[in-house]
Write a structure and sequence with these properties.
Blueprint (H helix, E strand, L loop, with lengths): L1 H7 L4 E3 L4 E3 L4 H23 L6 E4 L4 H8 L3 H7 L3 E4 L1
Parallel strand pairs: 3-4
Antiparallel strand pairs: 1-2
Amino acid sequence: MGDIEGDIGVRLFQRSTRKISLIEQRALFLNSATALADELDVLCDEIRARRTEPEGHLKASSVLAFGQKMIAPSVPKFLVRYPAATVDL
């Protein structure tokens, strides 16, 4: 908190050798900071909820042996996970 106090030029805590307490007049800072942190959490949750799944057509080409051994086995799992996508090998 020392850095924040320096940045805003206001002492937020009363410190002694035995305890530390919030200065009553500065409780507004703590309440506002808490509200901002809560708003940020809500915003992050909303952004995560709007995350979209891949969709569209994926066209891939490779050497036949590599495609059969490395790519083709993964396609069914991909299509189950992302049903809005199509694959053309």
